[in-house]
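Recall that a protein's primary structure is simply its ordered list of amino acids. Everything else, from secondary elements to tertiary packing, is in principle encoded there. The following example makes that idea concrete.
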Amino acid sequence: MKLDELYAKLDVWAPDVLSILRIMAGLLFLQHGLQKVFGFADAAGVPLLSLAGLAGLIELVGGALLTIGLFTRLCAFVMSGEMAFGYFMVHAPRDFMPIENGGDLAILFCFVFLYLVFAGPGRWSADAMARGTPTARRT
């Protein structure tokens, strides 16, 4: 099999894998929101009327909306900004290197969300259903 043929076979799956990336990122982000807002997983919740509380609400609502693929681009834009802001407010002052300051996950979330702003939600999403976009995989 030639490399071009392999790439053509993989390209067919790109919208489905994009949806899987969106769903997993949304669920992981939702988990952080649940932790901050409700004390999920034995974590102490934070006051809602604080910067951390606002971050928790963005993570909770944005993570849920991203998981189902509703208002994907707008949510991803807001969450990407939150992660950039969070990185520079919380992690960067600790150390220059992300592996040392614990900010590597914030950076990864920031750029995955930024990618979703431009790539969209993928085939399996409420946004695609609202637009009437077919969800079946093309062969």
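The chain has a mean pLDDT of 92. Residues 13-131 form one domain.
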